[in-house]
Write a structure and sequence with these properties.
Number of domains: 2
Number of strands: 15
Helix content: 40-55%
CATH superfamily of the largest domain: tm_1862 like domain
CATH topology of the largest domain: pyruvate-formate lyase- activating enzyme
Largest sheet: 7 strands, parallel
CATH class of the largest domain: Alpha Beta
Radius of gyration: 22 Å
CATH architecture of the largest domain: Alpha-Beta Horseshoe
Number of helices: 20
Distance between the termini: 39 Å
């Protein structure tokens, strides 16, 4: 039996394809360290994904498929195709599998289900199949792994990497980085100790924080930047600043080695008020290349923040935005409206707070309606109250409307106070920040002018809280789809 393994990322229902498959790159790196041959297929980048998969099935040890909830419909199509074409085992993993392992295990097209981190399990499965050994359980239970022992991610295992390196980041940070931008995502830690009631980390017991050492992070970032000639690194950790001493050591190491690049990461806003992030650290981080922090503010209502168990106040949030602004660091807070238990008064407090924070030039944001991540505390309460139900088997996730209910950033849902108003308000508040498409992404003067018009209309609507007759939103949706279709065609 051969030692070739096929790793696949399915297409999502929103047709987004902005990030390289870092999770599969990590798995491929571990497999290659044990002399397995790995081929990664990103279906969104393929003209005919099933045809590409069919060509690779000969002598394949097994097919591994990762999936988010938004990728389930395409993942199911791929699994069915593989099993109808061959006897190759199918292994699945990713967030959706971690949330619903039993549903996945019941599927006739699946041989093994990996929950949680996959680097150790994928080797166990590969060795078992290669040696024709049956594992005792179809579901491989979640393990907490030591990231310090991970081999350095070999991004080159993915053949389509260069198309992502040259691709645009939609973030406002793109206005402040070296052109042309060349970027990649990087993971230095996993987990977040916070207990937010809407968060998938709490549901999946991913609150245990584990990390790579500062030295390992500096070494890896330096090599990645030099190897791929990067100008920017997007650190995708759930919360990069949990260990503040490690952050300081990383920044010092990058400065000492004079690694010439910029970076961004995620952080809690109350770390500023607690002095974990002080002026000294901000100055050091800025010197090391920090250009943007994503911070989860979520709401301008104290009541809503309490429902979420965020453990912050609007005053702490504004303090964080102001401190970053003082150092020329972009903040990209996230906000959520229509949290179960909110009133229109709470929703309008968030809208007012977003508009208040716009006085800081480096402030930008994304606003969404509450997405009921499966099994989180807020979702479970909706289920208990009879306002909502979760699919009970895998095939029910094939319905795109069901998937959108769980995953769409701006969507009208059954329990909302005023879903139509909130969905449109969330769109215009996000539109004003220009974080879905940026002017730096436009290739023609006409497209830049069109985008400027959409953003200007959003600013006017937000100023007067006028969200009726959103004809311009329909036009923007067409513009958005046209832009990404042209990008894919290139």
């Amino acid at each position: 039996m051969g030692r070739k393994i096929l790793l696949i990322r399915p297409e999502n229902i929103f047709d987004y394809n902005n990030y390289p498959p870092l999770n599969l790159i990590s798995l491929a790196t571990v497999l290659k360290s044990k002399k397995y041959e790995v081929k990664i297929i990103n279906c969104a980048s393929e003209t005919n994904p099933l045809e590409t998969i069919a060509k690779e099935l000969n002598d394949t040890l097994f097919v591994g498929i990762t999936m988010l909830t938004s990728e389930v419909p395409d993942a199911y199509r791929i699994m069915k195709f593989v099993k109808e074409k061959s006897r190759v085992p199918v292994v699945v993993g990713g967030w959706h599998c971690t949330l619903f392992p039993e549903q996945m295990a019941e599927c006739e097209y699946i041989d093994y289900v990996i929950t949680g981190e996959g680097e150790e399990h994928i080797l166990t499965i590969a060795d078992a199949i290669a040696n024709q050994i049956s594992l005792p359980d179809k579901i491989l239970s979640r393990k907490i792994l030591n990231m310090e022992t991970f081999p350095e991610p070999d991004y080159a295992t993915y053949e389509g990497l260069e198309s992502f390196i040259n691709n645009f980041l939609t973030d406002k940070l793109a206005e402040y980085v070296k052109k042309p931008m060349r970027w990649l995502p990087y993971e230095s830690s996993r987990g977040c100790p916070s207990q937010c009631t809407f968060c998938i980390n709490v549901v999946t017991n991913n609150t245990h924080y584990r990390k790579k050492s500062a030295e390992k992070v500096v070494n890896e970032i330096e090599r990645i930047v030099n190897t791929h000639r990067l100008t920017h690194v997007k650190i995708i950790d759930d919360n990069f600043f949990v260990d503040i001493n490690r952050v300081r050591q990383i920044c010092e190491g990058l400065v000492k080695r004079n690694v010439n690049f910029t970076w961004d990461a995620e952080c809690r806003c109350d770390y500023f008020k607690s002095s974990m992030i002080n002026d000294e650290l901000l100055a050091l981080a800025k010197k090391s290349g920090l250009v943007q922090l994503t911070i989860g503010i979520e709401s301008g209502s104290l009541k809503t923040l309490a429902i979420m168990k965020k453990g912050i106040t609007p005053e702490q949030a504004e303090f964080a935005v102001k401190k970053c602004n003082d150092y020329g660091i972009v903040t990209r807070p996230s906000f959520i409206v229509e949290i179960p238990g909110e009133t229109m008064e709470d929703i309008k407090k968030t809208i007012t707070f977003v508009k208040h924070l716009r006085k800081y030039p480096y402030f930008t944001c994304g606003v969404q309606t509450f997405r009921p991540y499966p099994k989180c505390e807020l979702t479970q309460q909706l289920v208990k109250d009879g306002k909502f139900s979760e699919p009970q088997k895998l095939t029910e996730w094939m319905d795109h409307d069901v998937v959108k209910t769980f995953t769409s950033a701006q969507y009208i849902r059954p329990w909302q106070v005023n879903g139509k108003y909130s969905e449109i308000a969330a769109y215009y508040l996000t539109m004003e920040s220009g974080v879905s498409l940026g002017r730096h992404m436009m290739r023609t003067a006409l497209d830049r002018f069109k985008l400027k018009c959409f953003i200007t209309i959003a600013k006017i609507r937000n100023r007067f809280n006028f969200y009726l007759f959103p004809v311009d939103r329909v036009l923007y949706t067409r513009f958005f789809r046209s832009f990404y279709n042209k990008t894919k065609a290139r």
